[in-house]
Design a protein that fits this description.
- It is a single chain.
- The chain is of the alpha/beta class and 428 residues long.
- The chain contains 15 helices and 13 strands.
- The strands form two sheets. A seven-stranded parallel β-sheet has the order 3-2-1-4-5-6-7, sandwiched between helices. Strands 10-9-8-11-12-13 form a six-stranded parallel β-sheet, with helices on both faces.
- Helix 5 links the parallel strand 5 and strand 6.
- It is globular.
């Protein structure tokens, strides 16, 4: 399994174990694609998904590794561009017995539907997290004349936990933060202020701000204005019943009586458990926020309504269509995917990978996209692309890690410090 961020590691590792044929033992080798969002050890420990082995490497090194080590299945838990690059890279290897390639999405698909799907086209299996998504995915592929047989309905692999039961004396509200939704300082400050005001209005209620990463860490999306830093600047400080928390989302949900978010996938985890779940409308119901995905869910609400005691009740039909089973049972959610994988593995030989994007269908788009991953237009490594070997010295790896750490620090400083200043100067 190859992943490029903490959330995709979680999805990829759990998915890999779910789709493996039941008659085969599973040995999961985990690889982290080296890049801006490569998770730290703390982030990996927090997501609650592990592998039998873990290595970090570049995309070209991963492809080189496929030449040396045989795998039955490769799960690509990556952004769309990286998936496309790996598909072309694997195809270019010309392996006589190539692995089955599986990919999908880590959560709610509310933006760049066509772009993201076509970048994933070519995998043997493209997993959809719900019946609703499976229908949309097939329509996109069929609409451009591409083979849609790879689309396979499944579910989010991390929907778990006991059904919600109110506990006497407990009253906990959790806000699930997102790195880039909302994106502006003003909007993020507004959401934070309302959360803090909610805590002050209800002093006997425990109010938690669930954060994805600590300062200095990165996730899939760039976080220009971390809530931790915004909280430090709030006039009057934070009330005693307000707390910033990290950790496994499932463990936080174990003590949650109301989950509030703008559009986080945590909402689906909460709905699965039947926890009252609110999707904020304060900043509007807009595509850039992703909360438009929840139209019809029965979960839309504003801070004013929540302050007044309103508790949303999810629409059962909507939830079922989105992959949140009405009876809370997921025993059969991956049966179709598992059967599809087993059928493909039983073939004497897998057909060549044929992504929709080629130098014929997208001559102006594909070559520069592949070049970002150090691959030529035909999927072969570009001259100078370094393929790491397993005998790299410890000293060399240590030096490389130190250089990468410094580069990441400079990048974060530019994103979180320099860029906002330049933006403000441009508005003068």
């Amino acid at each position: 399994m190859l992943a490029d961020s903490d959330t995709r590691w979680k999805w990829g590792a759990l998915t890999a174990r779910r789709i493996a044929p039941e008659d085969r033992s599973v040995e999961l080798s985990g690889f982290l694609l080296r890049g801006r969002a490569t998770p730290t050890a703390r982030q990996l420990a927090e997501v609650g998904a592990d592998a039998d082995a873990l290595r970090e490497m570049t995309g070209t090194a991963f492809l080189n590794n496929l030449r040396e080590e045989p795998y039955d299945i490769v799960v690509l838990a990556l952004v769309g561009g990286a998936v496309q690059a790996m598909l072309h890279g694997i195809a270019a290897l010309g392996l006589p017995d190539r692995p089955l390639v599986v990919t999908g999405y880590v959560g709610v698909v509310y933006e760049k539907l066509a772009d993201g799907l076509l970048l994933r086209h070519g995998a043997d299996v493209v997993l959809a997290n719900s019946r609703y998504d499976a229908k949309r995915f097939r329509e996109v592929y069929e609409g451009v004349g591409a083979d849609a047989s790879s689309v396979t309905e499944a579910a989010l692999p991390f929907l778990a936990g006991e059904r919600y039961v109110p506990e006497e004396g407990r009253d906990t509200v959790v806000f699930a933060a997102q790195p880039s939704v909302p994106v502006s300082r003003a909007d993020r400050t507004y959401v934070l202020k309302r959360l803090v005001e909610h805590a002050r209005l209800h002093p006997r209620r425990e109010v938690l701000l669930k954060l994805r990463s600590k300062p200095g860490e990165q996730t899939t999306h760039i976080e220009e204005f971390p809530y931790q830093k915004l909280a430090e600047r709030l006039p009057g400080g934070l009330p005693p019943n307000f707390q910033l928390v990290y950790g496994h989302m499932g463990e936080v949900l174990d003590r949650t009586d109301l989950l509030v978010t703008v559009s986080s996938t945590a909402a689906l985890e909460s709905l699965h458990r039947r926890i009252p779940t609110a999707i904020l409308t304060d900043l509007g119901i807009r595509e850039p926020l992703g909360n438009h995905h929840f139209v019809g869910s029965g979960c839309l609400a504003s801070w004013d309504q929540l302050d007044g005691g309103y508790r949303p009740k999810a629409d059962v039909v909507w939830a079922d269509r989105q992959g949140v089973a009405a009876d809370g049972a997921y025993e059969s959610a991956f049966d179709q995917a598992r059967a599809h994988v087993a059928k493909l593995l039983a073939q004497s030989e897998l057909p060549p990978l044929r992504p929709y994007y080629t130098t014929t269908t997208a001559p102006g788009y594909l070559p520069p996209l592949l070049a970002r991953y150090h691959l030529a237009a035909d999927g072969t490594p570009l001259p100078g692309a370094r393929a790491e070997s397993s005998d790299d010295s410890r000293m060399r790896r240590a030096v490389r890690e130190a250089v990468r750490g410094a580069a990441r620090g400079a990048y974060r400083h530019g994103v979180q410090r320099v860029a906002p200043v330049i933006r403000r100067m441009g508005e003068l």
